[in-house]
Amino acid sequence: MSFTIKSKNDVFKFALPLHDYLSQHGKYEEAEALASLVDSCYPQNAQALEAHGKAFKQIRETITDLPPEYQHALDDALSVLSGEK
Description:
Number of helices: 4
Oligomer: single chain
Helix content: over 70%
Distance between the termini: 21 Å
Shape: globular
Order of helices and strands: HHHH
C-alpha cells in the first residue's frame, strides 16, 4: 500500500489508515491519541492541521518500526504541514 501526500487534505485522509495500522500492530496508546485527535472538532482547519502535525511528530518519534510506506507518508505529511511541499 502506498500513500500520496501532496496536500493538507491528503494529511487528513492519511490519519485513518495510520490509526488502523497502529491499532492492528499493538500500538494502542498512539492509536488512541490519534483517534482522539481525529474525533476532535476544531473551529478552523489551521487548528486541526496543527494538532495532526503534533500527533504525527509524536508517532514519528516514538514508533521506530513503521513500514517504509507509512514512514514515507508520515514524512510527506509533516513536510506538507510545515510548508515544505
